[in-house]
Amino acid sequence: MSQSTTEKFTSRDFRDALSSFATGVTIVTTRDAQNTPVGMTASSFNSVSTEPPLILWSVTKTAKSAPAFKTAEHFAVHVLATDQTELSNKFAKSGADKFGDTSFSVDANGVPILENTAARFDCKTWEVYEGGDHWIIVGEVRAIESAKKEGLVFGGGTYAVASPLTASKSAETRETGSSEIIDDLLFYHLSRAYHQMAHQFHDEVRSKGLTVAEWRVSACLYAQSTCRFTELAARTFLDPQSMEDILSSMEEQGLCTLSQTDGERSATGTLKGHERVTSLIELAKGYEKDIMNDIDDVSPQALKSTLKKITTSALNS
Fold first, then answer.
1. Within a 10 A sphere around the Cβ of 125, how many other Cβ atoms?
2. Which residues of the chain have pLDDT under 70?
3. The domain 18-155: what is its CATH number?
4. Which residue blocks in the chain are alpha helix, DSSP H?
5. Which of 29, 129, 219, 252 is most deeply buried (CB count within 10 A of its CB)?
């Protein structure tokens, strides 16, 4: 697909373009004037200076917690680990009881501290600047805690993990010897198989005018199926705010319809959405067939069954 320049754009166009810039995921916490714990998911985190050590993040002025962060003397920025997508989703929801069943402690400044994150920056507010519809909050880092955990990544509307790029086809490849320990690791082979299969297929998805996130949603809504937002989030690795934007955009394109029943929102696929992804589903099946034709000792159904068992086992462990 050719690139285009949009001189007149909507706020959604702006957010969609920003989504191509992958970021880490953080939760920022503090206490409000009533001494109540406050926290929110934020990807607008960045370093500012090393001498002195300064970081910044931003909060929309309309956020319920914005007054607390704007006036807070201290706050903490938690960099989330790859196994904390549910925690990210929880703190991304507006008005939810985020600390009710969340494990946390309180530091000497009264700031709520979350457990098991990849890293944490304990900050004293340095300055607060007005930035359009956001407050830009600069903090001086007074203490840090870092665990040897891989950080959660967010880009293109979905959660991800940072992985090495697949080598180009022109790159020299060789089979490693049996003495290579990595060749005995299931994680390595699962990751390598996914990245090598998905890279080419995702290029085809984009050639159809869909993002990878839109493809995942459309596949879930195939044959005009209906899915609750919570189910879609789990299946497509979308956080609540991004899912709202993506589904609203898809509804405008006629790819789905949105509804609400008994307080729970749902999305239903449309005939247009069905037709848009039919060729992609057939293409995916073709890729699968070509790959499995070269494998004699396992059937596609047996492989899928095994992978489902692995997924279930990993979720329950």
1. 17
2. 1-6, 12, 162-180, 239-241, 315-317
3. 2.30.110.10
4. 11-18, 66-71, 85-92, 186-207, 212-220, 229-236, 240-252, 271-293, 300-316
5. 29
**What CATH code is assigned to 183-316?**
1.10.10.10
pTM of the model: 0.64
Q: How far is CA 86 from CA 90, 92, 98, 118, 203, in A?
A: 6, 10, 11, 15, 29
**Tokens at 269, concatenated:** 């696929």
267-287 confidence digits (pLDDT tens) = 999 999 999 899 999 988 888
On the 0-12 / 13-18 / 19+ scale of CB atoms within 10 A, 232 is buried
Per-position DSSP letters for 183-216, written without gaps between them: GG-HHHHHHHHHHHHHHHHHHHHHHTT--HHHHH
Residue 135's CB is within 10 A of a number of other CB atoms, namely: 19
Q: Return the pLDDT at 315.
A: 64
Token duo for residue 99: 């600390």
Among candidate residues 120, 85, 89, the one with its CA nearest the CA of residue 104: 120
- Taking CB atoms within 8 Å and a gap of at least 24, the contacts of 213-217 are 213/156, 213/157, 213/158, 213/238, 213/242, 213/246, 214/246, 214/249, 214/250, 214/255, 215/277, 215/280, 216/158, 217/246, 217/247, 217/250, 217/256, 217/267
Give the contacts of 81 (CB within 8 A, at least 6 positions apart).
Answer: 116, 117, 118, 147, 149, 150, 151, 152
Domain ranges of the chain: 18-155, 183-316
